[in-house]
Amino acid sequence: MSKHLHPARKKFTRFSSRLPFEFGMPNASNIHKQASDGSPVYFTRSSSLLRRQVLENAPSVTIKSDDYYPRVLKLERWQLTDFSKTRILFLVPSDALGDCVGMALFMRSFSKHYPGTEIAVLNSASASDIFALVPNIEIFQLFISAHQMARFNHIIDLSEMEGWKDIAQMPVNTEETLCEAFGIAPEPITHRKLSVGPGSKIGIVPMASAPLRTLPPELIRNIIRHLSEKEFEVSVLLNAYQGIMSTYKAELGVPESHRVKYLDGFPTVGGLIQFISDQDYMILADSGPAHITKLFQTQGLAIYTSASGKTLQGRHKNLRSWQSSFAGDWCAAPCGLAKLRATEDGRIGCMGSLNLSVEELNAFPSMRNKGMAEFFTFNQPVPCVRQLSLDFDEILGLLRKDLD
After folding, report:
1. Over the chain, what HEC string results?
2. pLDDT tens-digit readout, 311-354
């Protein structure tokens, strides 16, 4: 092994198939669907959907190994390597939309810094439609063949970036972190002018993947009521993939205006991207769609609770930022948590809801639980989320600066 290479952090599965096969993610565009190419062996991340749900039950598939680690370029070589006119395969460590937006923005900058370089991503999964916005990129959604992997001069594991191992504790701005790691300048931002008036499209995305960041229905009801007094076309985009969507919609109540409509989400991430690019203004929780606005510089307001809006928005100024004003005996917003935590005896919450220090919350809940998500969203929001309803007048003041 070259002294500049070492094993990737993530395990991969090596498999072969006696029959041709194809596979694609249900929530990504069909253009990213992959097919076999006659290679003797293929690779997919051991934790991927393909490995967990398909390979074990496919009679024509043989699992060769579940602990293969591709050799990747060491982090300390990223700045020292000239990537001009080479082929690079980036290993994507997660398909979380916000993180992948930052990676895609970095790749735009990378391609401009190294014109003529060919880049590809592996295991982009649900985020494939985001990476498709990078010019001249090759996307391996769930697997890659040995023939295809052999084409690349360098393989780079993006999970080696600074802060990735602790990202659930303290969110990271992946665009700026990666640009710094490679020693390249971020692509200049083309600002989009705010223009709103009668008939303007206002999108609201109140739900996040964790109750720590989902906005209270009471806050959204009050915002909708204010917007209903104007001649805006308001779309409240919910998330059909989250089990609490129907309850959240019921909490919002029936729209009082024909100009307000609820959307249950889109079948693909590409549909979500198109929706965001079409809006004139957006109001968002700390979620993937807030990051997607960076791709189009869509104007709006992002409302943050436990995570720092300053860190996550970084150099992008298209969104105004409101940070929960909560401060208590055990924590103050933003504390840095991205998800709920658990104690050794199984209690679930955060520092403020359990009156404990962060050191005493060193584990995550053992499983996803719809009842838990409903409890923390509707019955007992964590303190920084509950504070948002008390902050409504100040939040409304920010909206009026833009929309009135």
Report:
1. CCCCEEECCCCEEEEEECCCCEECCCCCCHHHCEECCCCCCEEEECCCHHHHHCHHHCCCEEEEEEEECCEEECHHHCCCCCCCCCEEEEECCCCCHHHHHHHHHHHHHHHHHCCCCEEEEECCHHHHHHHCCCCCEEEECCCEEHHHHCCCCEEEEHHHCCCHHHCCCCCCCHHHHHHHHHCCCCCCCCCCCCCCCCCCEEEEECCCCCCCCCCCHHHHHHHHHHHHCCCCEEEEECCCCCCCHHHHHHHHCCCCCCCEEEECCCCCHHHHHHHHHHCCEEEEECCHHHHHHHHHCCCEEEEECCCCHHHHHCCCCCEEEEECCCECCCCECCCCCCCCEECCCCCEECHHHHCCCHHHCCECCCCCCHHHHHHHHHHCCCHHHHHHHHCHHHHHHHHHHHHC
2. 899 999 999 999 999 999 999 999 988 889 999 888 999 999 99
Instruction: Indicate where the chain has its CATH 3.40.50.2000 domain(s).
Output: 201-403
Predicted model pTM:
0.92
pLDDT digits (tens, 9 = 90+) for 189-214: 988 888 888 899 999 999 998 899 99
- According to CATH, the topology of domain 201-403 is Rossmann fold (3.40.50)
